[in-house]
Structures are given as structure tokens and as C-alpha cells.
Amino acid sequence: MVDAPTATVTGHDRNHGRAFHFWVFQLLFMVGFLFHTTEEWDAPPEAFITIAMIAGFLAFTSQHRWREITFLAFVVLLAARNIEKFPGLANHSNVILFICLFLIPLQVRRIQGAGHDGPAKRRAVERTEETIATLRWVIALMYFFAGFHKLNEDFFNPEVTCAFDKMEDYLRVASVSVADLPAILQKLVPAGVVAMELVPAAFFLFRPTQKLGIAMLLLVHGLLAPVGFADFSSLAMSLLWLFVPVDAMPKMPGRRFFIVLAASFLIMQLVLATWRIPIGDQVFGDLEGLVLIAGFAPVWFLYFRARVPGPAMRWPGRWAHRAFLAFMVFFAMNNYFGLRTAGTLSMFSNLVTEGPRSNHFLLGGNPLKVFGFQEDVVHINRVDRRVRGRFRDHLLADHAAVRVEFARILERLRRRRYRRLYLDVTYNGQRYVTRDLLNDPQFDFSVPWWQTKLLKFRVIQPQRPQQCAW
Fold it and tell me: What are the residues facing 434 on neighbouring strands?
């Protein structure tokens, strides 16, 4: 059901258009996280709390202040949740954490300006436009670095590339394996994956090409959503909405459509929760992605049909916004600085920066590396079979773990109270062997608390080429 926008919602009044535009973003952002919560049903209360907050947001649609308070509560709780799980977050979850922290001051401003027509409301409107403009840069940077990290030798190696990691699900339907593909296609697919991330990031910089950039990314997320990435795709669609200009709002569906869309998602997730929780099944995982695509399709169809140029990419004037963008670049470049290697938009990239040389085409000599965390490693010789291969393969013989990661793993093993746990490792040329990890005072690899809280590393594989990894 798509109702025509009314004059009181969008019309030609730009202020109403701005309010409606940001209201849609808030709603899509909350719904996007709902898909994320259903990825891991070991904590179902998280999903039900999200559903309740979305329902409250919809209930307060006509009550501006309470609606803004509800969204503020949502971003605060989401930020607190991700801070508690940090640094073990996936790429998109780290981006969402930073965006939530960035949105909190804006929401305070919007609550102060709610229900007023004076200076407080004008400041809230101005801050909202500035924040949206900055978030557009964040989105462009997110896709740019996702592609930039893949510019390495092993991602373009058909034998180990992550480019086919999810494509295999589609090939399996056709009873075809990667090895059956023509050699030229095996070489072109990695280049195509990189192009589908780098090119849209460049297209976002220019108003005439923004729609084409959005179309390319919708194709990417449309392919990923049905094969296990509905959570990432839904959050990405809420962020891509920020590239819809306010001038296009009169040609978009009205609030009733988005309310019906969100309510449909809520009902679907409640049904999935009822089905999944007792049996722990993932049978509906692909269905979520298909429902996501079908639900958003009318929105994007109407936008592409509207002949309205995209919004201009304005560099932020506020120093806090510029600092936020600088931090995003710094975080995404952590691999090359010698800091963390996981969750930095480098997942499924085959990137290697550990050691004196990287496999990156442009930064092969590690010219930016100033920290030594990636070289402070513990080599695994033998490990108790009860924990072999756990912790994302950090405990596999002949593999290595950065000391920060190894210290985190030891702490988790001690908390699980394994009896007489055997471990044989080499560190700084010295061999350490214990047959009772819990009670061996000599087996101490502790590091300062801030390192385990801020840094996260992938397992270091024993040899090249770099196999596809999380």
C-alpha cells in the first residue's frame, strides 16, 4: 500500500520534507538493526527489545519529542551494546557503533528543538543537515576502504580469493563449482568485486552519478542478503537512504507506507523468533534476505523514477565532524599502521600486513607501519584437542596468534575452567609448555587491559598465499 505524500508531511514545504526525510532514516536504521539481532538467536531478548523500541517509535509518530527521545534511547543502547562487545565486532557493527556515538549529540539537539519554532528548532535543523552531510562521507569511505583492502595479490589469486566466498552459494544451486568456471572468469570476478565497491564510492562524490552508485550497491546487497548478509544489507540500505535528497521526498511514498513496511518486518521477525528459539534452526535465514529486498524495492523504484539530482557532497565545517571523518580513516587504515587487523573493513579481503611485507599492491613494503603489535606473536606448536581450532582458528598447530589475541584467548580458557589443559607454544624464540594451564604460574602472557579492549587480530596463517578468512 503506497499512499501519496500529503502537504503536511512532505508537500513543497522544505522543512516538512527535511523532517520526513530524517524520520525515514531513523526508522530504517532501527529496522536494519533488527535484522542484525536475529542473526544470533543466543540472545533473543535483544531482538525483542529492538522490536519494542521500533513499535514505540511508530506509536510516537505524531509526538515529535517522544519520538526523538525513543530514537535517542535506541542509539544509546545500541552504542552501549557494541561497546560491551568491542573489539570483537564485525566490520559493519564497528561502523554502526561509531555512527551511534556520532548521532547522540544530534539527538539531544533534536529533543531540545522539538515542539518549538524558535532558535532551538533552527539549530536542530541545521545540525541535522550537517550530520547527514558528514554521514554521506562516512558511507563513501566505508565502501572505498572495503575495496581498497582487496587490492592485494591474494584476493586476485583464484585459488584462495574471498571473491567467491558467497558466490559459491549461487553456484551450488546450478550444481557448478568455482573450478568449473572459465579461467578468464575466475580472474575477472575478483576485479569485479573490487570495482563494485570502489566505483560507487567515487560516484558518490558527484551529483549526476550518485544514483548509479546507489544502483550498483543495491545490486551488491541484493546478492548478499539472501546468502547470510541480510543484517549488513539492511543497515546499508538505511545508510544509503541518506543519499536521497530532500527535494525527492514529494515523489516518495508517505509515512503510512513506511509504517506498514516496518510493521511487516516486525511481524515477520516475531514469527521467525517463535520458530527459531525452540529449535535453533536457521531455515528462514534466506527468506529474511528476500523479504528485505522485496520490502525496499518500491522505495528505490520511486527514487530512481524521480528526476531529482543527488545531494551535493559538502565537506563538514565543524571541527568535530572533520575529526570524526579523520578517525574513520585512521580506523580503516589500522592494518597498515601495525594495529588491529580484524573489523577494520578488511574482512574477507585476503589482506596480509603482518611481517615486513604486505601483499597489498600499493603498500607492499608496509611504509606506514609504526606499531609492532602484529609482529609480537605467539607460535602454536601443539594444543589440547579439546580446544583445537577454536577461537577462529587461533589455536591450530603451526598457526600463530598476536600476543594481544593470545592473552585474550588464555583468559577465556581460564574462565571455562578446563582441567589439565595442555598447550605448547613458542614466543620470542623460547618454548613454553604447560600440562595444566589453569594452575601454571609460569604460563603468563598477559598484556595491558586497554590492548585487549581496543585491539582485535586475525589468526596468522602458517604460509602464503593467504586463505580467505573472517
Answer: 423
Residue 148 has pLDDT above 90, yes or no: yes
Least confident of 37-46, 236-245, 338-347, 380-389: 37-46
CA-nearest of 321, 316, 331 to 145 is: 331
**Strand order across the beta sheet in which 400-402 lies:** 400-402, 377-383, 423-427, 430-434
C-alpha distances out from residue 259 to 188, 249, 253, 262, 313, Å: 42, 16, 11, 5, 29
Sequence-distant (6+) residues with CB within 8 A of 165 are 348, 468
φ, ψ for residue 414, nearest 5 deg: -65, -35
Beta bridge partners of 430: 427
Nearest by Cα to 138 from 215, 195, 93, 201: 201
Q: Where are the alpha helices (DSSP H) in 226-318?
A: 230-240, 255-279, 285-305
pTM of the model: 0.90
Q: What is the CA radius of gyration of the chain?
A: 24
- Nearest C-alpha neighbor of 241 from the set 27, 419, 457: 27
Take residue 354 and report the three cell numbers written for it: 603482518
What are the structural domain ranges in the chain? 14-329, 344-454
Please report which confidence band the pLDDT of residue 223 belongs to, taking 50, 70 and 90 as the band edges: confident
Long-range Cβ pairs for the range 297-303 (8 Å, 24+): 298/2, 298/253, 298/257, 299/241, 299/252, 299/253, 299/261, 300/214, 300/218, 302/2, 302/251, 302/252, 302/253, 303/211, 303/244, 303/248, 303/251, 303/252
| pLDDT score of 118 | 78
> Can you tell me the distance from the alpha carbon of 136 to that of 314, in angstroms, rounded to the nearest whole number?
9
Treating both helix axes as pointing N-terminal to C-terminal, what angle do 230-240 and 91-113 enclose, rounded to 10 degrees? 40
pLDDT bin (cut points 50, 70, 90) of residue 291 is: confident
In DSSP terms, which residues pair with 433 in a beta bridge?
424
Cell of 423: 598447550
Instruction: Please check whether residue 82 is in contact with residue 100, taking contact to mean a CB–CB distance below 8 angstroms.
Output: yes
- Return d(Cα 128, Cα 64) in angstroms, integer: 15
351, 360 in Cβ contact below 8 A?
Answer: yes
3-state DSSP helix/strand/coil % of the chain, to nearest 5: 60, 5, 35
